[in-house]
Write a structure and sequence with these properties.
The complex is a heterodimer.
Chain A: H1 2-20, H2 34-48, H3 66-77, H4 82-93, E1 119-121, E2 126-128, H5 130-140, H6 152-162, H7 176-190, H8 200-206, E3 211-212, E4 215-216, E5 229-231, E6 236-238, H9 240-250, H10 261-273, E7 283-285
Parallel strand pairs in A: 5-7
Antiparallel strand pairs in A: 1-2, 3-4, 5-6
Chain B: H1 5-14, H2 23-34, E1 39-42, E2 45-48, H3 52-57, H4 63-82, H5 90-102, H6 106-133
Antiparallel strand pairs in B: 1-2
Classes of the chains: A mainly alpha, B mainly alpha.
Chain lengths: ~290, ~140
């Protein structure tokens, strides 16, 4: 109970603060400015946690919570996802029945390209995430789609991320349609949902580093850099959209479809916010 | 109940003068204060604090009425799902309503259906509200 109280108090304070400095709104296609959004979000966190380096946000809550960081660093010494990377590599290199393979579907044979996902595709008229592209590659080659949230798709994605370690996230918004998808993702991120009437921002912007049960909430800056993630709670690897669903479920909102347009737009927005940070997936979390 | 008075009063005050508040605000304040079954006046007219769904559930408890209320709750549920604002418990409540109907417990079925329909309506309302005001939470806006 006490937790909720402090969270709500924090949220309403922040609300007052942001209302009093109303300038540009950025909630229409004409006014939204992704780069200004990104800089404002960075500035928000840097003001809030002046001692935290920007790059460190790629480490999620461990950038802010020293107490759990040591434990996590210990866990990363024998990464729980190592097996998954190997399994992913093997699948990646195994030809489909038609003799082609994943490498044929991606730029640079699929190596070192994680930082360019998700991207806007005019052809498909939607945001394409890495996991969607993996499944599209399979279908184009006569294979069945993989399940979207865990298992093989997460392992292949983990392997591809691992070949991109250290590359700088660089999501682009090439035209107005892409901008509209970005705006939709932004709106989703800041919209209250579920019976508990909370937005992603309530916990991951205004409410950052606040204890919720056994967890503290991470900043959304850097949220996407290390996915897919091995969570101790899951005991396995999961995709970013699996995590979205979990958070939505926690506020008693029914999760939307993994790899659907909505979550892909949300990922597009969140990844743009993390432009400039390094890819460090797969990662491990509690 | 009494200890909530100052809180609600503060909420009403902070959203402007009582007279200027919308019907929705007035309703919510009265409902929070008195629960259901209370009457209040808004702009010269009398209203009750019952949700429309509760009034529907107050109809005679017959199989036909229970079926009709479940059907309309399901339709609302479909609507809220289409806008992506479904709440997690609604599906289960609808299931329980169906079970009660099959067991011949019509009043229970109607109460559950009313609850599910209310959830769905609130989810749709939440979608509208979010569309109106999400931007105030954006840093730098």
């Amino acid at each position: 109970m006490k937790i909720i109280t402090s969270l709500l108090a924090g949220a309403s304070l922040a609300l007052v603060a942001s209302m009093s400095s109303a300038a540009s709104t950025g909630n229409t296609l004409a006014t939204v400015d992704p780069e200004a959004d990104r800089l404002a979000l960075q500035a928000f966190f840097q003001k809030r946690f002046p001692q935290v380096e920007l790059d460190d946000y790629a480490n999620g809550i461990y950038a802010l919570d020293a107490a759990s960081r040591a434990q996590w660093e210990e866990m990363e010494e024998f990464p729980p996802y190592e097996f998954d990377i190997e399994a992913g590599e093997e699948m990646f290199n195994t030809p489909f029945a038609n003799g082609k393979s994943y490498a044929d579907c991606f730029e640079n044979g699929g190596m070192g390209i994680r930082q360019n996902f998700p991207y806007w595709s005019d052809e498909q008229d939607r945001v394409v995430t890495l996991e969607l592209a993996i499944n599209q590659c399979r279908e184009a080659n006569g294979e069945k789609k993989l399940k979207a949230k865990k298992g093989a798709i997460a392992q292949i994605s983990a392997y591809m991320a691992s070949t991109s370690a250290g590359n700088i996230i660089d999501v682009k918004i090439p035209n107005d349609k892409a901008k509209a998808a970005y705006l939709d993702g932004k709106a989703q991120f800041y919209s209250r949902r579920g019976q508990l009437n909370m937005s992603c921002a309530n916990c991951h912007v205004q409410g950052v580093n606040i204890p919720i049960r056994a967890d503290r909430t991470s900043a959304t800056l850097g949220h996407v850099t290390h996915f897919p993630v091995f969570r101790s709670k899951w005991g396995e690897l999961g995709t970013l959209h699996r995590r979205f669903g979990g958070c939505q479920n926690n506020v008693r909102g029914t999760p939307l479809k993994a790899q659907g347009k909505e979550y892909s737009n949300l990922e597009f927005f969140m990844t743009y916010m993390s432009n400039g940070l390094e890819v460090n997936g797969p990662g491990s979390r509690k | 109940m009494k200890k909530y008075l100052p809180l609600v009063a503060a909420l009403v005050l902070s959203s402007g003068s009582v007279a200027a508040a919308s019907f929705e605000d007035a309703f919510n304040a009265e409902r929070a204060l008195h629960g259901k079954g209370h009457t209040f006046t808004f702009e010269g007219k009398e209203y009750t604090t019952d949700h429309p769904e509760e009034l529907e559930a107050a109809a005679e408890a017959t199989e036909a009425n229970a079926k009709a209320l479940i059907a309309s709750a399901k339709a609302k549920h479909k609507e809220v799902k289409a806008v992506g604002y479904d709440w997690t418990l609604t599906k289960g409540i609808l299931k329980s309503a169906n079970k009660a109907l099959k067991a011949g417990k019509f009043q229970e079925a109607m109460n559950l259906a009313a609850q599910a329909k209310y959830h769905a309506r609130m989810g749709i309302r939440q979608a509208q509200r979010s569309a109106e005001d999400w931007v105030i939470m954006v840093p730098g806006s």
